[in-house]
Structure formats: C-alpha cells, structure tokens
Amino acid sequence: MPDTQVSTPAAALLPAIRAIVGERGLITDPVDTAPYAEDWRKLYRGRTPAVIRPANTAEISAVVRLCAQAKVPIVPQGGNTSMVGGASPMEDGSEFILSLSRLNRVREIDALDMTMTIEAGVTLKAAQNAALEAGCMLPLSISAEGTAQIGGVLATNAGGNNTVRYGNARDLVLGLEVVLADGEIWNGLRRLRKDNTGYCLRQLFVGSEGTLGVITAAVLKLAPRAREIAVALCAVPDAAAALDLFGRFQAYDATTIQAFEFLSGAGVDLVLRVIPGAVLPFARPAPAYALVELATSRPDAGLRASLEKILETALADGVVTDAAIAESEAQRGAIWKLREEHSEAQKRAGASVKNDISVPVSKVAELIRRATAACEKLIQGVRAMPFGHMGDGNIHFNLVQPEGADPAWFLAQDHALMEVVNEVVRDLDGSFSAEHGIGRLKPYLMTDWRGGAELAVMRRIKQALDPNGIFNPGRVLP
Ligand SMILES: Cc1cc2nc3c(=O)[nH]c(=O)nc-3n(C[C@H](O)[C@H](O)[C@H](O)COP(=O)(O)OP(=O)(O)OC[C@H]3O[C@@H](n4cnc5c(N)ncnc54)[C@H](O)[C@@H]3O)c2cc1C
C-alpha cells in the first residue's frame, strides 16, 4: 500500500523508516503483514501499518528513536509462537511490528568459557545445533524451538523440558544487548560468571515480554554435550504414581534427570488419533504416562543400567505398569513425538482452553486430580488433557471442547474454566502463568494475583524504562 493512502501517526513515519531499513526491511502490503499480525493460537487478528525488519542493532536503534519521538507503539516479534498473544498488534492498526528475524548470526562460541554470543533472531533450534557443532549443548528445549527465536525465548523467560535440570531461559543468560525506549543501545554482552556491579539489568529484560526494551543479542551459558542419553516412556496408573516415580529418580541421582514429563491418557490417545506417524510402544493404552530422559556427560556413568534398575523396582511396586526404553535415536524421537505433538493435536481437535500453571512439585498430582474434577463438574464432556513438566511443577492444564460442541460456545467459557482451575492453583500456592507469560491474554489477572506492592514496583520500572509507553502497551501490566 502506498504510504500516502493512510494518515495515522505510524503511517506518517513510514518514509523515514524506509530510509533507515531500505525496501527489504519493510513490509506494508496488508496481505503480507497479515500472518505477522495473527497469533499462533488464532485468538487475535490484529492489523499493522508495517512489519519493520531491520538488518542490525543500529537500524533498530534508529527506528526506535523515531517511534519514541512520535510516540508510536512497537510490538517486538520473534517467531510469533506466543501462547498468550504477546507478539500480536492491536486491531486498530496503530502499532508497528518490529521483526528481529534478520538479526540471525551466531557471533561467537567459546568452548572453554562455555558461552555463546548470539543475535536475537536466531531460532532456538539453530542455536542448539550451533552449540552441538562446537561440542557443547544449549540446554533449553521447547516444542516450538524450530520457530521460536532467542530474543522471544528470553523475552518470555521460556522454560520447557530441561528446566528440571538447567532452570529457565533466565538461568542461562550471562549478558544482553538491548535497544532502550529512547533508541539508546545498552551493550551488556559480558560473559562473566561473576559480576556484582550494581543492579542486575539483564534480568529485568528477561521475562519482560517486550515491554521494557528490544533484546538484540545475548550471551548464553552452554553445558557439556551429553555422552549418554537414556529415554523411557512409562505407563502409570495415575498422576500420583508418576510423581512417585519422579521421586525415585530424584533420590537415585537427581543430577542425571534431564526431563520428566507427565502425559494424560486422554492426551496421548488424541495424539495417536490425529497426528500421522504417532505410535504407542505398548499393547494397550494406559490412564497416564511419564516420560523420563536421563543424560550425562560422564563417559562411564552406566545410565541405561540405572534406568532399568529404577524401573524394575517401580514395576514390582505397581508404580509403573509397563515401560518402553528407547533403543535408538529413532525410538527416542518416537517417544518424544507423543509429548511434543500435544499442542498441535489439541489444535486439530477444535477449541481448547489452556492453563499454563505451576505448583510446588510435591503438589502436582493433587493439582491434576482436583482441577480435572472441578472442570468436569463445570462442563459436562469437557476433555481434560493435562501434560507437561511434572519435574519442575509446571503443568499445561489444557481443556479440549466436548466432542461435537460449538467451538465459539466453548471458548466463551474460558474465563469460567480458568477460574475454577486457578482456585485450585491458589489453594496449592501456585502460579496462574508458569512459562507462557501474560501477553494480551492475561493482564486482567495481574491485579488479583500480583497486586499491591509487587504490581506497584512493576509499574514504576515500566515508567522508568519506557516513560512514553511505546513498547507493547497494554500487555503484561493491566
Ligand atoms: C507448540 C508450542 C510449544 C511451546 N512450548 C513452550 C514450552 O515448552 N515452554 C515455554 O516456555 N514456552 C513454550 N511455548 C511458548 C513460548 O513463549 C514461545 O514458544 C517462545 O518462548 C517465544 O518465542 P518467539 O520467538 O516465538 O516469541 P514471540 O511469540 O514472537 O514473542 C513473544 C513475546 O516476546 C516479545 N519479544 C519477542 N522477541 C523479542 C525481542 N527480541 N526483544 C524483546 N521482546 C521480544 C514479544 O513482543 C512477545 O511479547 C510454546 C509455544 C508453542 C506454539
């Protein structure tokens, strides 16, 4: 669309922005901007006058400076896989999307420092591969890693499968480069393990969901590459048995647990039905499953023997009813596929309401039992398909619409369903958002859950760093 056809404050900036980023760095045709303006879950279909795609940090700085002067809002965007509409612009077309995709270089990997200096637009998968090529491992893994980018992963403080061992994205960041709300560039790309020099600014930006600054590059901690990996899918009678099994692995050697995931029987059944190539390695389905992955960088750890030993006792005690240990990389992939395809399978089964919740690990089984009962009482036929990171206390308590129900009707019940789940979460001292963040979907819950001093401090930080409110206005803070 020619810039002259629209006369919003954002559109008025387009010629100056084009002069900074060039023709290649600007998408203005509404047909081409539409995919960027819709979120992964298809909850929001926004509009934007342009997707700005700068090639480097200096261009981002110049664009932000212009927008700050004109008070035009910016939505930073990575892979656009946010589960809470965090990277979607508003429907009124007043906000630019700032895509980080062209900042896609791995700047440096140092195998002795065990660090990687990387730009924000590199996908998580590409970052993992680069670390492996250098003989190390980037120990962060999420199902969306082929699309999600380092900047988005850090801006949302992503968790994922390996949190049980390595922590969240936050725990892997040593340094950041950030474009601030007035366009100034903060270069904090230090790779120091110890650096007590005032407030820890990088941790302010991690998890801020694009509301405080644009992350353009980072220094990430790497881990030693695993020499041995052992993976098993275990059929269990219920979530309490899965938690019992986790306790057994933890007591034996907590340092080797790389992932411990819970899968409901209903969730796995759905994956088997709608995802081509998904196969259950058992003769008959079970009420629930635990997926355990052990890994070590030690050459002589005998991981496979440890895994078999723990499973033998668990089978004898009735905690596990059947177990399949991966004998090859292909079998390992097939087991993980049953876990990784949960979100996609639920998307294909109609409307779903997602609760990304956490409780202390010891309370996960009680959470699943009580929340399932509460939702089934509220809506007859609702299909509870809880799954996720049992080993760190984070469950995706997803609810799929009853078979044959009207999707729009079901989605209209989302607040009521979230409320009954959150009542249980609150009672168990948990959080209503474990790893997906707040985005556009959940700011309304912040006053109730994080009100008082906590929210007041957050507002003061936002005011100090982004006084004109140009970064993601209306997201995170109500
Ligand atoms: C199938 C699937 C599985 C998922 N599994 C997990 C999981 O296991 N664990 C987990 O934690 N999350 C998971 N997620 C959600 C998760 O938040 C995202 O996948 C990922 O962290 C976001 O990365 P992104 O590049 O797509 O960010 P986007 O979706 O583009 O953006 C997310 C937020 O970060 C902001 N942002 C993006 N880039 C920048 C930047 N450079 N600087 C400042 N702000 C920025 C955006 O404005 C937005 O608020 C999953 C999502 C999907 C679709």
Characterization of this structure:
There is one protein chain. The chain is built from 18 helices and 19 strands. By secondary structure, the protein is of the alpha+beta class. Strand 18 and strand 19 form a beta hairpin. The longest helix has 15 residues. It is globular and about 70 Å long. The N terminus is likely disordered. The structure holds flavin-adenine dinucleotide. The site of flavin-adenine dinucleotide has 36 residues, from strand 3, helix 6 and strand 10.
Descriptors for this entry?
478 residues, alpha+beta, 18 helices, 19 strands, 35% helix, binds flavin-adenine dinucleotide
Task: Summarize the model shown.
The chain is of the alpha+beta class and 478 residues long.
How much beta, percentage-wise? Answer: 15-25%
Number of helices: 18
Low-confidence runs (pLDDT<50, min 5 residues)? Answer: 1-5
Which hetero ligands occur in this complex? flavin-adenine dinucleotide
**Main pleated sheet:** 8 strands, antiparallel
Number of strands: 19
